[in-house]
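The protein record filed here:
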Amino acid sequence: MIDSILSSREQKLIQIQNLLQSHELVISVKSNIPGSNKNISEAYLLVRLFHVELSKMLIFKKPSMTESADGPYFLIPIKHSDPKEMKMMMISIENTHPLGRFIDLDVHQHSDASISREDLGVPPRKCYLCEHDAHFCSRNQTHDIQDLVTYVKENVSAYLNDQILSMIDQAILTELELDDKFGLVSKTSSGSHEDMDYHLMLKAKEIIVPYLLRLFMKGYESFELAHLLEESRPLGIEAELEMLKATNGINCYKGLIFMLGLTVISSGYALSHNQKFHEIFTNISVMTKDIFKEFDMKPKTFGMEAYRTHQIKGARGEAYLGLPSVQIALKELLHLSKLNDIALRVALKELILESEDTVLLKRAGSLKCYHEIKNILRSVDINDITDVRGFTQFSIQNHLSFGGSADLLVVSIYLYDIHQIFYSK
């Protein structure tokens, strides 16, 4: 194993030297994992995370991740006149980011060696477990390797907990606080939902967010995708029951628990298995491959009846097919550096038109009216706030609900944030 690691480092150095023939500087992004196994899942997550961080600060063409016995890494060639200034920038990231101590951001110029902290008079990096110089502890094997690796894993897990909790909460809140959205509950209106208001939705959100975080971690810690849905079902049911208890039986987010639950499970699995962004959708399709089996029974719900009578698949169909409506909405959203109200309304309109919403079908009263409502929305100019408010008023007067599409908008916002932090550039 040691020979393989040394050989990988030599190959990496050759790559760097080749890049330096046509570029001023090369930044190496590699995780700092103790021990001989440099390819744990945290190593991949770390290099991906810091590659995205650098893409927000520097201009460069998207490099490919290289896998090696020494761990995965990115080599980023850049134009910069001052190598020492660049190294100080990298040191600042290593010193200030919550996970910075677990990443090596080395700056190479026209020489074999990278610019060191010592070259700049900067103190050496400290050991993970004590206050001594990290190199001193490494040379003297002061600490058990497994203790060091566990420390890395625990810190990455804690960081993910904080990030994902915030993303889930913010995605739900962003949708909820969007105004003029076709009769859905917002901060200023109950819309078409007489039994709900903003404060009730907030109460429901506070209940379900911790459960959704647990579902993410379930996906992140799992080694088997096929059975994840069945294994996660008890958590989803518990979240639903606790929500209904808090809202006195009013169903604020039952559909969201299902749809966002699947998405957070899949994204957790994707991040821990070094999967690409598009595989999040594939995972959902794999997890729900048997989801229509219960539809062979006598219909117990309106959704089952809608499928039997009109072949309207609803949320189950969206999941089974890997969120096709969400993928369409994200095509536009991912081009934006920041989401805004118009972009969110455009996404909501697309989701309503593209998805099969059994809630809307039930409120519409017939399949004919269901399609007529979609045709009316199709002509609405989202850039014209008068037009938007007109359709919103129409929806309220006719007691229409686009709750299924609102759930998909929350999913889209969450996946936008996942992409921004772990997959952008």
Observations:
- Residues 2-143 form one domain.
- The chain has 17 helices and three strands.
- The mean pLDDT is 93.
